[in-house]
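Input record, target 12 of the design panel.
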């Protein structure tokens, strides 16, 4: 692939992923309005989010793999067009059923995240790659929060249907620009898509995310929820067995056990849970009436503005992740950033007497989130061969999505489980929720430190393991990851 215009390629990718990431959170604040206008129930309105979540979870690794095989740009453009089509159908939807179908179509666009990282890897020289990955990850993180900020003002002007039309302009433009200016990838993965692996992967993701998203409505102890969790475990076990035995695996388990992959996948679950717990409940928290004795009484627009410091700091630290790597390794960045997320989450839960105070705490939260998003993405992308970038990034994105669903479920249970005499959520529910979000972020610290410790093996043992994996197509990557982890271990343990 030509590297003559990497800046132009990056600009097109940034427009694409930024628009889609904003769309993710743009809908959440207007769900009550959608419910009223379409004459549906709270459960029906919630399904507009659940349908998107499941669709994106299934499409992300599958299309990431297809992009690795047939061309990343080609599938990237198709993902953009799917978002545009789904947005148009959503804007015109006469019923909640049609809107849910539209959200399923939009969810296919989730595949553009791993594909974008793959295209960046193809387009940029090695010395510029960390900065490019960090910047792109930062844009994705910023977009996820920007939708919450913009939803109120845009809905007042355009209505909720207009919110779906805004991304159409950007996604169609990005699709045309990508088709014209982004060269197709030259490196292709061999083989095909194992149909049984695809079915089992889709099955366990749906069986897991469905009860996580709707368990509070159906009842966590209901036979349906319990049955789905059991099915998820069985399908996951079956998927792993099929992948291990497959000559052409959808997700190569040898790749998944690389230090830079398994540790960052585990960290993604913890960070996703912590991030979404704060993202989804911070606006509600600051809108609690002052009559409760702890509420800050912010309006919908004010709650969005209170998140602006978070978005600004996310942008700054996300873009700085690559340049910082010369002094602070990416794994060390994950450890530092996750610790910052933990401290700021706990601070929001314990100290929230004024709007200024919570806004500053949100800004600190953004420092950690922007840095950790970029660092995790950089470690994953640089730990696998170019032909596996799409599927590796896709699985990491997926596991962050699973973490987000877990975080939302835990936060919902804690907040709704504690109510005051006025029927509103008690302060203790929010305090417990934000403190729990901080504890979840510490899980990312733990798994990252563990991966570094495990990488610091005696050289004789490392050499023996390299010999035993010499036949693996990932042998070279494993050596590089081990060396990288060893180089970073000193500052981590110092």
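The sequence produced for target 12 reads:
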């Amino acid at each position: 692939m030509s590297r003559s215009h990497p800046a132009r390629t990056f600009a097109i990718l940034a427009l694409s992923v930024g628009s889609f990431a904003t769309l993710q959170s743009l809908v959440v604040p207007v769900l009550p309005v959608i419910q009223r206008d379409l004459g549906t129930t709270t459960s029906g309105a919630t399904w507009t989010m659940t349908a998107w979540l499941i669709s994106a979870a299934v499409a992300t690794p599958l299309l990431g793999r297809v992009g690795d095989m047939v061309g990343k740009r080609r599938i990237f453009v198709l993902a953009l067009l799917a978002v545009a089509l789904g947005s148009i159908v959503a804007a015109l939807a006469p019923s909640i059923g049609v809107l849910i179908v539209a959200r399923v179509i939009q969810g296919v666009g989730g595949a553009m995240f791993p594909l974008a990282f793959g295209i960046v890897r193809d387009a940029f020289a090695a010395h510029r790659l960390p900065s490019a990955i960090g910047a792109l990850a930062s844009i994705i993180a910023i977009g996820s929060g920007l939708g919450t900020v913009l939803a109120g003002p845009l809905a007042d002007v355009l209505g909720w249907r207009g919110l779906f039309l805004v991304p159409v302009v950007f996604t169609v433009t990005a699709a045309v620009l990508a088709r014209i200016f982004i060269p197709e990838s030259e490196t292709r993965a061999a083989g095909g898509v194992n149909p049984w692996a695809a079915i089992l992967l889709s099955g366990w993701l749906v069986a897991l995310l469905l009860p996580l998203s709707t368990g509070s409505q159906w009842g966590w102890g209901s036979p349906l929820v319990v049955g789905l969790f059991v099915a998820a475990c069985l399908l996951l076990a079956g998927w792993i067995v099929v992948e291990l035995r497959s000559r052409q695996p959808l997700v190569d388990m040898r790749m998944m056990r690389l230090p830079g992959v398994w540790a960052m996948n585990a960290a993604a679950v913890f960070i996703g849970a912590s991030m979404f717990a704060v993202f989804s409940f911070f606006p509600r928290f600051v809108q609690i009436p002052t009559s409760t004795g702890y509420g800050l009484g912010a309006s919908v627009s004010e709650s969005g503005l209170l998140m602006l410091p978070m978005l600004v700091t996310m942008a700054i630290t996300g873009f700085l992740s690559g340049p910082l790597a010369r002094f602070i390794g990416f794994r060390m960045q994950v450890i530092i950033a996750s610790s910052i997320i933990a401290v700021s989450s706990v601070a929001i839960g314990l100290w929230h007497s004024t709007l200024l105070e919570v806004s500053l705490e949100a800004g600190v939260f953004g420092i950690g989130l922007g840095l950790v998003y970029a660092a995790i993405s950089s470690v994953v992308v640089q730990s696998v061969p170019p032909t596996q970038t799409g599927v590796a990034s896709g699985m990491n994105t997926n596991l962050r999505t699973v973490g987000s669903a877990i975080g939302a479920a835990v936060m919902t249970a804690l907040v709704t489980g504690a109510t005051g005499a006025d029927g509103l959520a008690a302060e203790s529910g929010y305090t417990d929720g934000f403190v729990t979000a901080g504890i979840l972020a510490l899980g990312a610290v733990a798994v990252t430190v563990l991966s570094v410790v495990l990488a610091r093996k005696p050289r004789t043992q490392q050499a023996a393991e390299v010999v035993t994996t010499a036949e693996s197509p990932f042998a070279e990557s494993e050596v590089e990851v081990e060396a990288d982890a060893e180089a970073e271990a000193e500052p981590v343990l110092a």
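The CA atoms of residues 278 and 422 lie 24 Å apart.
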